[in-house]
Write a structure and sequence with these properties.
The structure holds two protein chains of two kinds. Chain A is mainly α. In chain A, 76% of the residues lie in helices and 0% in strands. Classes of the chains: A mainly alpha, B mainly alpha. Chains A and B meet through helix 1, helix 2 and helix 3 of A and helix 1, helix 2, helix 3, helix 4 and helix 5 of B.
C-alpha cells in the first residue's frame, strides 16, 4: 500500500536533485532551465498526490495552470538565451558580468 | 506486495535515477534526453494517481513541445563543455550540502506522521466508467473559467514576447509598402532639373 508520505518523500528527493543540479551546473543556463523544469515536475507530483489522497480535483487544475506558466517561461527563457548568444557569442553565465553584481 | 506498489517503486526508481543522471551528465543534449525519461516516469506516476489527463498533457506538451524546443536550442547554440567541467567539482560540495540539508528537513517533517496511511487513508477507487477529463472540464469551465482565460492571455503574451525578442528585421528586404505606393504624388515621381545650355561647337 502506497501512502501519501511515500509520494511526498519521492517528490522532495527529486526537488533536492533539481536544487543540487542548479548548484552543480552553475555556468550553463540551459542546464539551469532544465533543472527548473525538474523542480516543477517534483512540485506537480506533490500537488497531484495531495489531490488524489484528498479526493479534490483543485490540485489537478492547479497543476494544469503550472504547466501553462512553465511552457510560457521556457519559451521566453530560450528566446532570451538565443538573444544572449547572438550578442555575446557565449551562454556562459560568467561572461555576463556587465553589472558587476 | 500489491502490483501497484511494485509499479510505484519501479517508476520512482526511474524518476530519481534519470534525474540524477540528468544533473551529472557532461553533454547538454544527453541531459535533455535524460530529462525526457524523467518526464515519462513522472507521467507514469501521475497515471497511478488517476490523473490521466495531466499525464497525457505532460507527455504531449513537455516531451513533444518543450523538450524539442530545448533540443533545438542546444543543437543551434555552441555549448562548450570545458567551462562546465571546470566548475563542476568546485560547486559539487556546496550542492550536495544544500540538498542534504533540505532532504533532512523534509524527512523530519514527513516522518512526524501526519501523512501516513493511518492518518490519510486511501481514497475510494473510481470505477472504469469514471472519466478524469470530464470531471476536470466541469470544474475548469465553471469555477476556474476566468483563470483559464487568463492563462490563454498569458500564452499570447509569451508568443508576442518570444517573437519580439528574437525577430530581426531584414536589411535588404524586397517587401512592398502598399500605403506608400498608393499615396504617391506626381511631384514625388518627376523632378525638373534646370540644366544650363552651354553653346557648343556642333550647334554653330
Amino acid at each position: 500500500m502506497i501512502a501519501l508520505s511515500d509520494y511526498l518523500i519521492l517528490s522532495s528527493i527529486v526537488f533536492c536533485i533539481g536544487l543540487a543540479g542548479i548548484f552543480i551546473n552553475r555556468t550553463n543556463i540551459i542546464m539551469i532551465l532544465m533543472c527548473v523544469e525538474l523542480i516543477l515536475a517534483a512540485v506537480n507530483t506533490n500537488f497531484i498526490a495531495f489531490s488524489y489522497y484528498g479526493s479534490d480535483l483543485s490540485g489537478q487544475i492547479f497543476v494544469f495552470f503550472i504547466l501553462t506558466v512553465a511552457a510560457a517561461e521556457v519559451a521566453i527563457g530560450l528566446a532570451i538565451l538565443t538573444l544572449m548568444y547572438r550578442n555575446r557569442g557565449s551562454i556562459d553565465i560568467d561572461v555576463t558580468n556587465t553589472l558587476k553584481g | 506486495m500489491e502490483f501497484t506498489s511494485i509499479l510505484f517503486y519501479v517508476f520512482s526508481l526511474f524518476f530519481v535515477g534519470s534525474s540524477l543522471m540528468m544533473i551529472v551528465s557532461r553533454n547538454t543534449a544527453k541531459a535533455a534526453l535524460w530529462l525526457i525519461l524523467t518526464f515519462f516516469s513522472a507521467a507514469s506516476l501521475w497515471l497511478l494517481l488517476e490523473a490521466e489527463f495531466l499525464a497525457i498533457t505532460l507527455i504531449l506538451i513537455y516531451v513533444g513541445a518543450v523538450m524539442v524546443l530545448f533540443m533545438f536550442v542546444i543543437k543551434m547554440l555552441d555549448t562548450e563543455e570545458s567551462t562546465l567541467r571546470a566548475q563542476f567539482t568546485r560547486y559539487l560540495p556546496l550542492g550536495i550540502f544544500v540538498s542534504l540539508v533540505v532532504i533532512v528537513q523534509m524527512a523530519l517533517v514527513l516522518n512526524a506522521g501526519p501523512f501516513d496511511l493511518e492518518t490519510v487513508g486511501l481514497p475510494e477507487q473510481h470505477g472504469a466508467s469514471y472519466s478524469n477529463i470530464t470531471s476536470i472540464a466541469q470544474q475548469l469551465y465553471t469555477i476556474y473559467v476566468y483563470p483559464f482565460e487568463l492563462a490563454a492571455i498569458l500564452l499570447l503574451i509569451a508568443i508576442i514576447a518570444a517573437i519580439t525578442l528574437v525577430h530581426r528585421t531584414q536589411v535588404n528586404s524586397k517587401k512592398q509598402n502598399i500605403a506608400e505606393q498608393i499615396s504617391v504624388q506626381a511631384k514625388d515621381r518627376m523632378r525638373f532639373a534646370s540644366i544650363n545650355k552651354k553653346p557648343s561647337k556642333e550647334s554653330k
